[in-house]
Amino acid sequence: MRYLVFILVFVLSLSDLFSQQLAISPNQRYLINEEDSTPFFWLGDTAWELFHKLDREEAIHYLSTRAEQGFTVIQAVILAERDGVRTPNAYGELPFHDLDPKQPNEAFFQHVDFIIREGNKLGLLIGVLPTWGDKVYSEHPGAGPILFGEENARIFGEFLGDRYQDDNLVWILGGDRDIANDTVRTVWDAMALGLKKGDKGKHLLTYHPRGSRSSGDYLHEAEWMDFNMYQSSHAQFYTPVYNFARKDRARNPIKPTIDGEPPYEDIPVAFWEYMEFKPGEFADITGEDGNLIDKNRFDKGFFDGKSVRVHAYWDFLAGAAGYTYGNNAVWQMHKKGETFVIPTLTDWKEALNRPGAKSMKYIRKLFEMRSFASIIPAQELIVSANPEGENHIRAAIHEDGKFAIIYLANPQEFTLDLSLLAGERFTAFWFNPVDGSRFILSEFGLNQKVWNTPPSEEEQDWVLVIDSK
């Protein structure tokens, strides 16, 4: 009997853990776990086609891998971009009967249920997009079709909200689209209000915008908008993602902001400049496995593991409340032999262990050692030249001056003003963002101004952490 009671208590405890919800921090800058008010570190992964393309065994493999790698959030779309309402899921099921959002297909949504709850069991929050933006009118149409007006958007939102009210998730509206006009705004408003009604206001909402935009550009004052999300996009190496964070942090009322789509690992830089988005593109340089065999046509190159680290550290040190990693094969859930949307280098399973993905856990490690929720951007700490681009340096300090974190995308000499920190004596260490190792420095004082990054064989990035004694 005592054993049965223990099992019941254990199961109920797990149920409480999986259904934990997020809230906004008292200073309105970060997300917190509602139950105990601890800061929530948003380290996301982009899995837009997860519900649509993977079967249950594949989904478990994906979710387990990302949980082991330290990710905390998975972003996925119910009505997916790749013809997600007319091409069935892995079990041959479509989301609606007769393409009607008022007639959901129970079998389809049982698969969504399974994936969300398996993710929750692994401690993963699911960032759920009810639909990709091409199912609502926009000036940048996609596969579509356009399904939603004000009435059925509200009904669909209420259906989803009610169904998932006890699951650990946030709602992400939008899906790579601007809001074209006031009529379109009423559609998204209606879906948001439906979600809020259905889940009784248990989950936070945000909006995923088109590239180089923030939700704050057109929805910041919407009552349902709990935090902002920006898409820093895929246009260039060393994208100044910090400008998005800085702009959102200056808005009133204050709301947290997250980089929901920065440059993806293994995606061609400014890929749209090379593509017409027609069937059969690049067939002459694509192998039988469906991946590129010659990258030279994309002469701007591909974002790599270092690229994703640069943007992650720049985001957090600029005051972003979160960062969502992405890999070009993983967002598509690209399988061997399939046709890609954007040219891939591997299939999705191999891409799970690309260098950038494997280094994400060290970002979490660092910002849990020195809480991201207590830092404020502090570019004034850097008194040497600090240009934009590959040699740009980002810095943040603890709100009470207890420590500083300085990130360098490339080795260089630089000068700091330590008078911004508390005290006159300090300890420090160099943190290797590739493998999480540390190099401890000797104690020093305020007269330590000029610094050099540690010697390394490659043009590696480094993090300097300085603690006040």
From TrEMBL:
SUPFAM superfamilies registered for this protein in UniProt: (Trans)glycosidases
Boundaries of every Apiosidase-like catalytic domain copy: 25-372
Pfam family, one: Collagen_bind_2
Domain Putative collagen-binding residues, every copy: 376-467
Domain of life: Bacteria
The protein, known as: Putative collagen-binding domain of a collagenase
Native species: Algoriphagus faecimaris
